[in-house]
Amino acid sequence: MSTTIFVPCDSAALALGAEKVAKAILAEAEKRKLDIQIIRNGSRGLFWLEPLVEIATDKGRIAYGPVQASDVTSLFDANFLAGGSHPLFLGLTEELSYLKNQQRLTFARVGITDPTSLDDYLAHDGYRGLKNALATTGVDIVKQVTDSGLRGRGGAAFPTGIKWNTVLNTPAEQKYILCNADEGDSGTYSDRMVMEDDPFVLIEGMTIAGIAVGATQGYIYLRCEYPHSHKALNKAITKAYEAGYLGGNILGSGKKFDLEVRLGAGAYICGEETSLMESLEGKRGLVRFKPPLPAICGLFGKPTVVNNVISLASVPIILDKGGEYYKNFGMGRSRGTLPIQLAGNLKQPGLIELAFGVTLRELLYDYGGGSASGRPIKAVQVGGPLGAYLPESQFDTQLDYEAFAAIWAVLGHGGIVAFDDTVDMAEMARYSMEFCKIESCGKCTPCRIGSTRGMEVIEDIMKGHDLNKNIPLLRDLCNTLLNGSLCALGGMTPYPVLSALNHFPADFGITNQADAA
Amino acid sequence: MTGSSTINPQVQQAQKVQAVITDLKDKPGALLPILHGIQDALGYIPAETVPAIADALNLSRAEIHGVISFYHYFRDTPPGKKTIHLCRAESCQAMGSKQLEDHVKTTLGIDFHETTQDGAFSLEPVYCLGLCACSPSMQIGNEVYGRVSPESFDETIKQSEVLS
Q1: Does A227 lie at the interface with B, CB-CB under 8 angstroms?
Q2: Which residues of B touch A440 (CB under 8 A)?
Q3: Is 3.40.50.620 the CATH number for A425-516?
Q4: pTM beyond 0.90
């Protein structure tokens, strides 16, 4: 009887040697004349265990990891095909506490299925949301998304249903669904995982959005740094067309929805929705003034739903199980689940989908296992390069949009980057300004000039020059960026800079309180 | 000179560019797909291709140049045989990417945006490859690498040189 072996094709697994492992397993099985079948699944998101090899058994999948090609012979010797004992043996995958305690709604299939197999997708509850959507009205779909409490997962946390409702109620001969897949924030990779490991869920979410608001064309604006996502999406889109899930007559309903992937070209600013639209239109990615809102006058001047990958990928389960079901997860005004990404200096970095409300401390220590280096965690940056740095004293903050706003921080896209005590927070603040300088689109002065001046001032501070003059100058400059920038790049660069300054003044050479003002 | 049997490389290049333009010019917002197509075919976007693009899209050459120069990924000079994209973002910094960056620059003898003298490698910074759970990371050609150390970098480069 043939044994099924799962070896992930997620790019993080590939970066750790999964391709070589798959080849070695195949070669070794051939040598031993064993009948095996390798399925390239997505990643379970337990990256310190990648490449994580799983064997299908009657009791469930049994995991081994992290497996290198050089381990393969010994795995066969240990009869791993029958779940034999081996130093890399981890037991039943589903029983691993890291995975078992999660609440995977959006990521329900990730790591389990063959990402570009439509049959696999259908066998794991795929396209149930779309079928429900086709059986009801646009108004009802929008109501369910509104009722679910889903807020934009890209970072701005704007209620998705309200955005959709605006597009639904704006009459036009052409409307668009635009997926923002320009996931450029450091420490975030949940969009990448969805696109590589379960691309159909994004396609389904966009199709539902199109049917809901009456848009017939969708675009996924994908950053070019994600070649594996590009391949997986295109393969899945082709299959969806062939099976009638995309195109002129979706599942015989007479509804039309076309979908195309467009590549960005390495500009962080194009993750800002108006800059993204300019780029897709073939221009420099300069930020647009708002209003008009994209929902009224967006891509090519038409009403456009612009949503992040995770927002759209959360729609199928909402339409499958209902808005109420999704809403029952979470706390306060943060409803549903958030795919949290642990990154940086942690022992057990990975993808954790949980209802809102979990604390940073639980994530960093219970899941993350503390720092990889074994040194104390000094700071974490939450929400990408524009997110605030938080000190240990704030680790009990619950993951909730409002709780983060209350401590002048942001949840952003749910990426958490941990730093140990060797980090120099003045250098991190300097880097934030440098990043803003490199990525500024140049349209507004505070961001374009302010970032360069900010870098210079922080460099001066790092040399210990005129702290009593330069610290107030930096604060003043940050104030200008905060209030005078056109978009979040300039407007939020002060978050990492000022939080570093406020929480870690000693790193800026500040020894007395007067200088800190 | 007429009747030459060898195809002039410049003519060949122009033909490739024209094929990309003809294929993509009618898409809505065709410019980025065209620029990607040209860079995929030639490795970069030579300045002499700009007039043909401008002509096809009814835009000025200045507008095309403006777009090419806006995006970090597009280049107007030929790259080395392989381009190394080294991540500089926060997660990688938390795992020692600065030391790795210094090592890479010293080993190759070049800075960011430069190409080694033998034309083997170009070095570009990248701000996140989405491999933050196995930092520091890099990409060489289409291959991605996680938990890169100075030692593993040397090993990868050695293998890459052997293979090329």
Answers
A1: yes
A2: none
A3: no
A4: yes
